[in-house]
Amino acid sequence: MQVFFDARQRYVIELRGSEVLELLRASTNHFELADEAALDYHLGQLVTWGNLAHAHDPGAVSRLEDFYKRRFVYHLTSVGEAAHRAVLEVEATAGRSGSLQSTMLAKIRDALVELARQGAEAAPSADVVFGLLHDLQAAFGTLTEEANHFISEIDRSDTGPAAEERFLLYKQALLAYISRFIEQLRRLGTEIRTAIEAVDAAGSARLIDLASRSNDLPPSLGHGDPAARWRDEQQQRWAGMRAWFAGDRSTGSAPTVERLAQVARDAVISLTRTLMRLNERRTRPVDRAADFRTLARWFARASDDGAAHVLWRSAFGLAAARHFVLVDDDPDLVAANTSWWDAPPVEIPVRLRTHGALPTAGRPSQVPNHELARQWIAQKRRREQAVLQEALRRFSGRGPLTISGMHALTEPEFEVFLTFIDEALTSPRQPDGSRVARSSDGRFRITLVQPPGDTLLVRVETPVGHLYCADYRIQVDEASAARPTAEASR
Question: I need a labelling partner for 152 at 20 to 30 A (CA). Which of 8, 101, 275, 353 fits?
Answer without folding.
Answer: 275
